[in-house]
Amino acid sequence: xxxxxxxxxxxxxxxxxxxxxxxxxxxxxxxxxxxxxxxxxxxxxxxxxxxxxxxxxxxxxxxxxxxxxxxxxxxxxxxxxxxxxxxxxxxxxxxxxxxxxxxxxxxxxxxxxxxxxxxxxxxxxxxxxxxxxxxxxxxxxxxxxxxxxxxxxxxxxxxxxxxxxxxxxxxxxxxxxxxxxxxxxxxxxxxxxxxxxxxxxxxxxxxxxxxxxxxxxxxxxxxxxxxxxxxxxxxxxxxxxxxxxxxxxxxxxxxxxxxxxxxxxxxxxxxxxxxxxxx
Length: 279
Known about the structure:
Order of helices and strands: HHHHHHHHHHH
Transmembrane segments: 7-34, 73-94, 103-127, 147-164, 185-206, 237-261
Domain ABC transmembrane type-1: 69-256
Pfam family, one: BPD_transp_1
Subcellular location: Cell membrane
Strand content: under 5%
Number of strands: 0
Structural class: mainly alpha
Mean pLDDT: 87
Largest sheet: none
CATH class of the domain at 64-232: Mainly Alpha
Number of helices: 11
Helix content: over 70%
Radius of gyration: 24 Å
Shape: globular
Family: Belongs to the binding-protein-dependent transport system permease family. CysTW subfamily.
């Protein structure tokens, strides 16, 4: 006999509606991207085909889809690497109290609550007034770091807050230098967290719109290009582009999860071999 309380079904229904609200638009776009050649932007669908996906790989009358994709990819990788390096350095620095550490911490967190468009405007103005090029690889790069670095630093703060310093002490007792301790002890232990920081850095950069709007210069990133296409593209090709970018995003997440899983398997295997050696 089912003795679940009525509130269980209410919460289950609410959660189901939340999933529909969360993923419904994505599924709708994916379905409409398979319209036939005469299809439009709304239901009912006029046939089914891969016509609009083929259109993406042909010369487009408007926009620079693949150029903007390459720029977003390169920018995402730049932001990812920088976020990892600075987050690890910041996490190591904040392990000990220093003058102004509290103020610096709150300044880092404050970057998350400042409206993104104001950050974009401010960075663009600074670069313009300083005579520096307003370009996706310079000002756009700097604006996006104001978004990704706080997330990376907060993750590293949490990681190092529970990091056992006994591992480092043991390495130093065995004669390891400071750099050797970080390279061979600290980094391998926090590697799964670094994968998380890398995923945050890349995905937040790849789909960032507001902080890139006024800092990308004359060359659009992919989110800006898609936004521009919504004003002059009236065919399902824009839905096909949205479907492919969504698949790419899930592919990136899957790759990062696979890396974490592989690292976990190797660590478990190494621990098992060490245990057998002791026996």
